[in-house]
Amino acid sequence: MKNGTDSFVFLGHWPSAGSFGFNTDILATNPINLSVVLGVLIFFGKGVLSDLLDNRKQRILNTIRNSEELRGGAIEQLEKARARLRKVEMEVDRFRVNGYSDIEREKLNLINSTYKTLEQLENYKNETIHFEQQRAINQVRQRVFQQALQGALGTLNSCLNNELHLRTISANIGIFGAMKEITN
Description:
Blueprint (H helix, E strand, L loop, with lengths): L3 H6 L16 H134 L2 H22 L1
């Protein structure tokens, strides 16, 4: 097997006999073919490759510029959103404070109205109890009076006879007559 340097050494030993043929030695022909192809590609492809690279560079720069603009817009939107968030948080705090004070005020109003209602109910209860006591006392008085009156009438009817009755009437007439004279 031949090494890589041998293939270059043999380049100078080609016979110039004017014959044309194919060299089937892969190690000898491959570097030559590659160097020719690369040379042609570099010579003719230099402009195309330069244009492709310039286009790619412009696209990358445009993408970066667009990204920077989008980033700036996103930062601006983020700042607006943060400002709105701060505003909403302040409103929430204000509502929370006002809500708590409203709740406390309503709680105190409810407690006060409940105390007033309880006080009124207590007064109504006391008035009702007093009224019922007075009614019960009056009923008892009426019954006692009726029973006493019935007892007195019963006693008078049993003790009074006609003669005693006439003497009582005469004495009362005499008392009325004496009172009449005193008043005249």
